[in-house]
Amino acid sequence: MFRKNRSEPFQRVLHNILSNAVKFSPKNGLIRISSKIVKGEFHKPQWLLAIKDEGIGIPFEIQGFVFDQFSEAQRPGTEGETPTGLGLYFAKKTIEQHAGRIWFESVENKGTTFFIELPSY
What is residue 72's predicted lDDT score, i.e. its pLDDT? Predict the structure, then answer.
C-alpha cells in the first residue's frame, strides 16, 4: 500500500481516527474496521477503509467543521479527554497528499463511520 518511508504519516492518520473512535465511545463500545477494493474514479481500483464506532456521534451543527485546523468542532471525549483540534485536520491533509479522500457519516447518539479511500497501487 505505502512504501516504508511513507507509512508513518498514514499510521498517524489511523491512530488519530482510532483514538477518536475510542475517545467518543462508551466503555466496551464496539469499533469495527473493514477494508475492500472498490472501483474509483475512471474505474481505477481504490482501497476503501471504514472505521465505525457506536459512540456519541458528531452533532449535525458541527459536522462541517471537523476537518478544520483548530476546529470549532472540538469537544471533550466521553471520559473528559481534551481535544487538540489537529487530528482530523492532519488526517485530511495526509490522505489528500496521497491522492485520496476522507469523509464520514454520523448520527448523534448512534455513532460515526470514517471512510478513507486511496489509490490501490
Answer: 57
